[in-house]
Amino acid sequence: MPYFSGEYDVAVIGAGHAGIEAALSSARLGAKTVCFTISLDMIGNMPCNPSIGGTSKGHLVREIDALGGEMGIAADKNTLQNRMLNLGKGPAVHSLRAQIDRREYAKYMKHALENQECLDLIQAEIVSLNKNGNLWELTTMLDCLYTAKCAVIATGTFLDGKIYVGDKSFSSGPDGTFSAVKLSESLKNTGVKLRRFKTGTPSRVNKRSVDFSSLEPQYGDERVTPFSFDCETPPKNLLPCYVTYTNDETKRIITENLDRSPLFGGAIEGVGPRYCPSIEDKIVRFAEKERHQIFIEPCGLDTEEMYLQGLSSSLPVDVQEAFIHSIKGLENAKIMRNAYAIEYDCVDPLSLKPTLEFLDYEGLFGAGQFNGSSGYEEAAAQGLVAGINAAFKAQGKAPFILERSGSYIGTLIDDLVTKGCNEPYRMMTSRSEYRLVLRQDNADIRLTEIGYNIGLINEGRYNKLLKKLELIKAERKRIENTVIAPSEGINELLVSRETSALTTGCKLSELIKRPQLGYELLTEFDKNRPDLPYEIFEQVEIELKYEGYIKRQYALIAETRRLEKRLLPENIDYNKIINLRTEAREKLNKIRPLSIGQASRISGVSPADISVLLIYLKEEKL
Ligand SMILES: Cc1cc2nc3c(=O)[nH]c(=O)nc-3n(C[C@H](O)[C@H](O)[C@H](O)COP(=O)(O)OP(=O)(O)OC[C@H]3O[C@@H](n4cnc5c(N)ncnc54)[C@H](O)[C@@H]3O)c2cc1C
């Protein structure tokens, strides 16, 4: 007889990057929440790269922060190195990335969960999940029974996890933890369709065994931009990374041993991430490339572990050692943790709603790697939305949905639940049609008011945003009313930047707008520049320089919003709409889109099908 251990509003299975945000947001919204993890010492673990952010992932982290999530704050507090990527390109793709102290980050997140009101954190493996009336019943390995109105599955790479290294494979979670085999069986018995995905990670070597003398160091940026918009003390750059490259010998060793790779040998059935390929995958897919760049990254201040970014592999240990030793700087490297691939169960996200609730299981939500995505940031973003919606569902409040035209989080979730994914889904800026508007620098302007309205952002932070908006408006007005007179100095600068010299006075705003110029270059001529935070000038300059493009994107967004507002009845029977093409009818019945907008993004639903649908809705007065 199971031992009854508690009744909750929301139960979160997992305390990885998704589970943490789900549990914190649910509890912060006042829902009585319980969070389970197989090991308390693996909360917020980074089984792969010890870093947060990167191209488009930095956008997600800043959006999570703007909405009231925890990842950005945790990253700033445990930063080893901070860099803004893609500064050579336009602001739409500027992305923050920080090297993180892996153990300190995990400790920080464990403490944040422990300190959270309304939240119980429990080390227990959930072995079964069943619906009993209106409640979900969760049973642990020790036969304790918990009930909850809503449950969030955020099991990551643990669900029936299986590790592969050469011809060796065994049931396991990442970093030597248990695999969650029983829960996988229980979900299948409940009727949840699961599939196999895989991912891989490189070796970690001891810093003392690396020859840094021949390696190129890479340092953090002078101007450090924190992830959190609420960061009072920006993080410091504490440690460098190092760059090296594979070579012909590396290629020879790997090519000669491909038959011993479980990936190429066919032992691994799970589908891997296209954009995080293993080194053997890269050697095969990009055979023409002479060398592949490798980053040697620190994992923490109090550890000698160094992460070999770019050398993910599932080749046998002896081959791993051989190809690592073929690389400059790593000739005598001592491997502390071998590279491996992990295969795990996850769900097809087409079975979820934009709230991340299952279409067929009321009150059951999915988040993170379990939903078919890959990456800490993608996981945390989904965890936040799933946690909010589980709490709102338990409290009988309206669902919380982020539009794809308003955020990368909205884009991520809409892509997953509307288009689906046949391999682990990684966010990229090219996935958004609105990337010039959805920049990392304005995530607070786009989302903090939403966070405030749902109750995750407090008054203080909201007022900080209002103050920032006031300063931006005032600065915009100031430069519109500031006229720079022609002078030898200004014209020397203009000619040197190959832009037309002044013959009469010119508005400062017009000068800043010029592609060759900007606030920095005009400092000397802008006598009355107020002492404002860098991000105020950054906002004004971007708005000015890209005014036309931004206007066009907002016009597109207005049109998209019009289609999103055209809702579809939940119980509409697409089989009755005879003029719909078969493929469209099947897809619409499977995905059950909430709006015409979402329907129009389903692959296999054509614009003609959308017109048929709009006519049907009109005729049926729906
Ligand atoms: C080997 C490896 C390589 C990776 N490589 C990459 C990469 O190259 N690029 C990339 O973007 N991402 C990579 N990742 C993925 C990245 O780690 C995940 O995206 C991220 O950790 C997902 O977060 P999550 O919260 O969904 O799951 P996780 O961080 O995996 O957390 C899952 C949580 O669920 C708990 N749990 C699971 N089952 C149960 C149960 N039955 N009962 C109780 N608790 C349970 C676990 O204890 C854990 O707390 C890799 C991961 C691994 C393991």
Spans where pLDDT lies below 50 across 5 or more residues? none
Amount of beta strand? 15-25%
Which sheet architecture does the biggest sheet show?
7 strands, mixed
The gross shape turns out to be globular
Comma- or semicolon-separated keywords:
22 strands; 21 helices; alpha+beta; 19% strand; globular; 36% helix; 7-stranded mixed beta sheet; 622 residues; binds flavin-adenine dinucleotide
SSE inventory with pairings:
Elements (H helix, E strand, L loop, with lengths): L2 E11 L3 H12 L4 E5 L13 E3 L3 H11 L3 H7 L1 E7 L9 E6 L1 H14 L3 E5 L2 E7 L2 E6 L3 E10 L8 E4 L2 E4 L9 H10 L3 E8 L2 E3 L9 E3 L22 E5 L2 H9 L5 H4 L13 H7 L7 E6 L6 E5 L7 H9 L9 E3 L2 E8 L16 E3 L9 H19 L13 H12 L23 H12 L4 H22 L2 E2 L3 H9 L9 E2 H6 L5 H4 L11 H12 L1 H19 L16 H10 L4 H5 L6 H13 L3
Parallel strand pairs: 1-2, 1-9, 2-6, 9-20
Antiparallel strand pairs: 3-5, 4-5, 7-8, 8-9, 10-11, 10-19, 12-19, 13-17, 13-18, 14-15, 15-16, 16-17, 21-22
The structure holds flavin-adenine dinucleotide.
